[in-house]
Amino acid sequence: MSGAALSDPVGTRRSLRTLLARLRVVVCAAILAIGTAAHAAEDPPAPDQPKTDEFRMLHWVESIDKPSAGINDTITLEVFDLEGWIKENSTSSTPRSPWELVPFLNGMPLKDVVPDSISLEPLPVKDATGRLTPVTKVRYRLRRTPASKQAWDDLQDRPTLTLPTEVSLGFPDISRPIYTKVRKEKFNLVIMSLGYLVLGIAIIVVSAASFFWLAATGEIVRDVGAPPRPDGLYPFSLGRSQMAFWFFLVIGSYFFLWVVTGAKDTVTVSVLGLIGISASTALGAAVVDASKRDLDGGVTPVLRLTTNAERRAERDTLQREINLRVAAVATLQAAADAVPPPADLNDILARIRRTKLELQGLQDRLQFFRKRPAARVIDDLLSENGHVSFHRFQIAVWTIVLGIIFVNEVYNFLAMPEFNGTLLGLMGISSATYVGFKLPGDKA
Length: 444
Hints:
Elements: H1 2-6, H2 9-42, H3 53-56, E1 60-64, E2 68-70, E3 74-80, H4 82-88, E4 102-105, E5 108-109, E6 117-118, E7 123-126, E8 132-141, H5 149-155, E9 162-164, E10 167-170, E11 179-180, E12 188-190, H6 194-217, H7 238-261, H8 269-296, H9 308-336, H10 345-370, H11 373-382, E13 383-384, E14 387-388, H12 390-413, H13 421-437
Parallel strand pairs: 1-11, 2-12
Antiparallel strand pairs: 1-3, 3-8, 4-5, 4-10, 6-8, 7-8, 9-12, 13-14
């Protein structure tokens, strides 16, 4: 057999190549295994080391002392290695002080809101990795300053009771604050105090209800210089109603802005001018009405129907009177049409004319009582001599348009609007026109 193998050199070479190939595979595998083991020995895995940024950071805000706070409340932040973070952000030309730190809410700095106090002896504690780290407590009072107004406006963009907020601190000229663990799920910024909100709503609702009751039954916004209506009440005054409209709008907006922002200087110069125009309109109308009342001695209502039951009873009485007048006219007309004509025909025709005039007056009164209360109010505010007058319609439309703009500005921008002088002048012209047109004659 050995002689046969030696006599076949081709088979021998093939066997040697196969052996060498297998040897190379084994050597490569061994080298790869040795390299992997060496790399693992140099950088062993740490299965308990989190992979998030918060544990790779050397400095961070650990906690806050309360779950919620609002404007003028205090918060205390517990910061790990604050001194080291300040040194990292300081240079020889720009040294930093911890008293320059401001709170960051949802990534926005509250400029000029500096610490009230900083713990002078940081207490070393162990962090999550077991490393001793100094802890500093920084206390702030959340104030609304002129420099921080824009940040507060962005935070309070949509008024709500609370806003989930991320809290950190940093320098106002550095956009990236220190890393924080106080995420949105851990802290709520109080936008509106529920207690003050309920109190304000209660005050405004009670005031509005009292006003509407007095307006419906009394003369708080009625034109006492005009002839009384068929129900014995004086008609509503457009000037006094406009003044009441702006009063409730401004006082409600002022309280709302105080609850949300804590600011007490929210009334602008243009709003003050708007209130002045409405007050001047009401005053001018009252002077004109008083002069008319002095000339004609005044008109005293003969009856005052303030309830729906009284108005329904008066409506039924008017309907019966109308039916009687219609029957009387028919009877008199039949007598006038008799052949031969009656001797007192002229007297009968005079009685027919007088009865028809009485009938027309009764029908006009009945038409008033058939109107809805809102229609009566609109007639009082916009009508003069029985027809809608343009000068009244103009001032009413301008008041409603500016009122809508006013509410939109207060809700969306948390500030009372600034009306320019041209617009205020236009309102003044409309008001002067209304007062001027009251001079020629009384409202029928």
